[in-house]
Amino acid sequence: MWKVETADALVGGLSAPGKMPCKSFSISALTCKTGGLLRKIANSVCAKCYALKGRYMFANVQAARARRMTVLARALADDAFRAEFISAMSFLVARSPWFRWHDSGDLQSRAHFALICDIARATPNTVHWLPTKEPRFAKGDIPSNLIVRVSAPHIDQPAPTGHVYTSTVVSDKRNATCRAFERQGKCGPCRMCWDPAVKNVAYYQH
């Protein structure tokens, strides 16, 4: 049986976004593949990436994200450690009915996505939310408790087609279905992002 401190140390520590009702597993936004390209494009949702400013730039936060990236890379390269990582993450994740993947960063590969799927399968009583701009990696047998929302790359762009769940970013508050901006940027009682009945979530631009 894991202890929280031991499991947390093995996975590199979970992040605790103030907005969320749960913890998350984040890596640096500088590792984003598609996001790295979008940062150079005006009016893209990544042009003013929230994960590359403010508290996300504190030295301790950057160090934690780098630590998780190192642990993730090891889990993807070493089968024995992969099993240990899944066990520790599952123990931590199962402590909450909700979990978010990547409040900073994104999928690195299909193997990365497969790892997340295995953790979701091991925690059937937790609903996982994974926002991504890497649908090319998010393929295969996706567990029913893993909500993969493919993000539109540009502000005021329609929802991407061909995906079960999506998200968009809008410049007009009236068009936003996420109302976190009315609650000091917090989810509050809302669980729309995790809700399989909600096909698209529209966020007001940061």
Describe this structure in words.
There is one protein chain. The chain has 5 helices and 6 strands, in the order H-E-H-H-H-E-H-E-E-E-E. The protein is globular, with a radius of gyration of 16 Å. The N and C termini lie far apart (41 Å). The mean pLDDT is 94. The protein is an alpha/beta fold. The protein has a 6-stranded parallel sheet.
Assembly context of the chains: single chain
Element pattern in H and E: HEHHHEHEEEE
The profile of the biggest β sheet is:
6 strands, parallel
Any idea what the radius of gyration is?
16 Å
Number of strands: 6
Tell me, briefly, the overall form.
globular
SS content category? alpha/beta
Strand order of the largest sheet: 1-2-3-4-5-6
Helix content: 25-40%
The N- to C-terminal Cα distance equals 41 Å
Unreliable runs: none
Mean pLDDT: 94
User: How many DSSP H or I helices?
Assistant: 5
Give the SSE map:
Blueprint lengths: L3 H8 L12 E2 L7 H6 L20 H19 L1 H15 L4 E4 L8 H13 L4 E6 L13 E6 L13 E6 L29 E5 L2
Parallel strand pairs: 1-2, 2-3, 3-4, 4-5, 5-6
Helix pairs in contact: 1-4, 3-4, 4-5
Summarize the structure.
The chain has 206 residues and is of the alpha/beta class. It contains five helices and six strands.
For this entry, give a set of tags.
206 residues; alpha/beta; six-stranded parallel β-sheet; 5 helices; 30% helix; 14% strand
